[in-house]
Every structure is written in structure tokens, then in C-alpha cells.
Amino acid sequence: MSLQEPMPSEESLVAAGLGVILMFISLLALSKTQRMALRGYLWSCLPNVTRGRRMSTSKTPPRSLSPEKKVLNNAPGSADYKEIFPPSSCEALKKAAESLPAAQRKKLNGKQIGQEEFRKNVIPFTADYKECGPSTYTPMEVSIEEIKALGDFPNYSELSGVALPEAYKDFDIKKALPRPYRPFRWAYHQTMSLSKLENNWWLELENTYVSRIAERKGLFEKHGKLVLNYLPGSELACKEIMENALQFLCARYPQYFSFTHSKSEGYVFHNGLLHNETVIKDMHPLHVLLENVPEDFAVMLRNPEDGCYYLRAGLLCSALGWNIDMKLGLQLKEVHGPVPDYKAKMEFSMDRYFSRLSADRPIQRGSWGLEVDTPLFMPPSDPHEKLREHQLPSLSLSRVHLRVDWQTLRRLPLSGAIIFNFKALFTPIEELRDEPYMPALCMKVLKEGKRSVMEYKNTWHVEHVALPALEEWAREQEEKGVVEKGWEVHTLEESPWFPGWEEKWHRKQGF
């Protein structure tokens, strides 16, 4: 409104005010799904914005998502994921360019493009980025020209906003034990139960490093594509997660890992624990991980045809009852098809979460089960699987182990891929005896957990041995005053730990 225009009358102001009030009342009457649909419609009516400014329009998840806050209304929404892109990496790219040589920095300034042009030039789902034109873009609004200008092993901490870990200089691989994860929850609901990733502990090494690497390589030699496989279009994402992982190892454990670079060989990764070297350019990125990182990685890529995420590559040596070959190429909801309550309680929220996850907010979570011995990889029809069909009368308590799959989820800043990674940790169930509240919590879930969830968890085959022991230890803890008598079983504030966990963990490592 200019100063020359007449001021509105008092009557028109009152009418406008009433209109605004009625509009808000109408909005409050809409369901959450309807409000999302309306927001999407209004956004689609706005004119194109220039590259680098879309970042503020994408909602990102809070840093901590508790089970109680996960999914209050998971009814299918009308959101069109095809029109939803992850938060842009443009600003992070500009920041990362500031520390690069002038010639390299010039190629990273980036020209301004509208959203319509960007969407027309998004990299095809199955395309190898190395064969795409310079003006092709990843879902993160990063051009192939810029990716090639960055070169190998760029500064991912600046690109993602996730700081490198602190150097663990006192770390001794011979004594190292994993932290005692105990992700027991009650009331037990089938939710993702996410929390912010602890940067220092993304890739946690332990004293089994050498033997575990050998075991995983043996699994690949025996099973091949059942544990390592990839589809066209995953090339950039596989390279990116490999480089992220090796940068982490060098920063966290500098006494064991390092890089050198030469014109003839390019980057060479030096592994002081295995006493070998890996010439990076000579090996597929997933094989580099297989040779050096004892964790599993699944690569989920956004399909521009529908905006949904699909499993396109993976190194999975720790799967029970399935393998990468069974799931490769499937959409997120299809990958989780066998999970109880996934469709009803988690499908919509997880699709939405994946569509908006930003690169600077990796998360962590844990799942658990009970196993006979320590099976790492158990594809369908594996002989060890037969142990799950019976309750062996002769089964000793010493053979029962708590298996925790400690998992992380992150978005990569260049490819936009979402990486799900995890490691399997085994603990003799007898360790729970002196851990406050743990016997009662575990026993509560085993006895009263939702039947479909517990059948999926598949603990029945050891419960005839585990439950009597847990019951005895829970009673023992009350009698000794370790826990309060008659305490109401619930998720602990320390979860996924227990009171005094650090003291026990340090003591077992000889600190």
C-alpha cells in the first residue's frame, strides 16, 4: 500500500479481522493430514525460487525423537513425495569452498537456477553420475560439475554439518569393548525410538576387530551377492559413504589409520590393525568398507519418479532371516514388509521422515533379541535357524546371548542418499545379573510384549532358560537393595544404558 492510497474504513478493518478469525477457526477444524495437503497446494502455487533458498522451506526433524512423540496420527496422508526434496546443500557447499584453492573454488560458486530448471535436471534414478552432464543435479541441488570439482575425499564435516569425532588417543584395540547397549523399553511399542547420533561413537571399534573383518570377508567369499550387492545409480552414494567412514576412522583412531596420496595411485588407506594398504581407486567402495570397517551399510536412494526411497546397494553381513539380495531394489515400505505394525503405525511417518531428513541430523537407535551362541549372518534355510524352532532341553544359560543391533541413519550431503548402518553386538545374558533394573525390564518385555512383535523378535527358543534366570536376578536385585522393592518397570532415563554402566564398562577393560 502506498501513501497516496486512501486508508481503509473502520468497517472494512472489522470485516477483515473477522475474516482472519474465521480462517483460523477453519484451519483448526482441519485434520493434520488436511492441513499438510493444503500447505502443499499453497506451496505449489508459489512462483519458482532460486537455487539455494529452498532450504528454509523443508521441515527437518527435531534432534531427539522419543517413542512417545513418534506417531500420534499415522493415517496415510496426501503428501506428494515427488514434489518434496531434502534440505539443500547449497549453503554448505559455499562454506566448504571457502577453504579450497582459488581454481577449485571458482567451479563451486554455482550459478543461480530456478526450481523448475533444477527439477528438470535431477539425475535419473539409474544413472552413473560420472556419465552425466555438468548441469545435472542431485536431489541436494548439487551439480555434477561441482561434485567433480570437489574431487575425492572432500571435507564432509563442512558439507554435512556433522563434526568429525575427537581423536581417541588412549584407545587400545586389545582391551576395547563395545559400550553396553541395553535398549530395553517399557511400555514396549513398535516405534523407531530415535535419538541424536553421538558423533564420537558412529563407528565403534572393539577387540574383535581383526577377527570380525576376517569373518565378514569369509561370508562374502561364501555367499557373494547375498551380503554385498549394488544397482546402477548407486555409484556416487557408495563412494560418498566409503569416504565418510574412512575419514571418521582416521580422525577417531589416528594411531591406527591414515591416508597418503600420490599421482600414480591416488588415495591409499593405511590400516595399522591389519597391517595392509588399500588403493582406493582399485576397488568398489563397498569392497573398501568390507576390507576395513566391521559394520553394515544399506544405501537408500530417492526415486525422482515418485519421491520415495529404495534400497539400491548394501553391504550386509549381519542380517538374520534375510539378505541384501532379497531386499535390493525394494521401496522402504517393502523392505519393512515383515515388521509387525509397520504399515499401520510407521509407514507414513517414516516415508515423511525420509523425505525431510537433513544431512546435519544423523540419528541412532537400537534393536535387540536373544540368540543361542553368536550367529552373525543367518540367511533363510541356514542350519543355525533350526535352533529357533525348538526349546532345547539341554540348552545351558551360558549359550544364551543378548544381541543388540546398534543402528544409525544419516543423509549424505552430495548424493542425498540415506544410509542405514548397524553392527551386531553380542553379550552373554549372564552379564545382566549385576546391571540395575535390566533383568526386570528384559523379563517384562519377554512376558508381556505384544505377541506379534515378540514372535517377530523370535526369542521363544531360549525363554525356557532365560526367563527363570531373569526372574531370579530381578528378585535378587530387590533383596540386595540394588533396585527399589516393588518398583514399577519402565524405560529408564539412562536408556539405552543402565545406572553405573560406565564404571562397569571401564572396569571390564582394565581402566
Secondary-structure blueprint:
Elements: H1 10-29, H2 32-45, H3 90-97, H4 102-106, H5 115-120, H6 144-150, H7 156-160, E1 195-196, H8 209-223, E2 228-230, H9 235-252, E3 257-262, E4 266-271, E5 276-279, H10 285-292, E6 296-302, E7 309-315, H11 324-327, H12 332-335, H13 342-356, E8 363-372, E9 400-411, E10 418-428, H14 438-448, H15 451-457, H16 460-479, H17 501-508
Helix pairs in contact: 9-10, 14-16
What do you see in this structure?
The strands form two sheets. A seven-stranded antiparallel β-sheet has the order 1-8-9-10-6-7-2. It has about 500 residues and is an alpha+beta fold. It is built from 17 helices and ten strands. The protein is about 35% helix and about 15% strand. The protein is globular.
Short note summarizing the structure:
With 511 residues, this protein is α+β, with helices and mostly antiparallel strands.
Which class of secondary structure composition applies to the elements? alpha+beta
Unreliably modeled segments: 1-75
Using the CA coordinates, give the radius of gyration: 26 Å
User: Strand sequence of the main sheet, in spatial order?
Assistant: 1-8-9-10-6-7-2
- So what's the oligomer here? single chain
> Strand content of the residues, in percent?
5-15%
Could you give a short account of the major beta sheet?
7 strands, antiparallel
Mean pLDDT: 85
| Shape assignment | globular
Distance between the termini: 72 Å
Element-by-element helix/strand order = HHHHHHHEHEHEEEHEEHHHEEEHHHH
Specify the number of helices.
Answer: 17
Percent of residues in helices: 25-40%
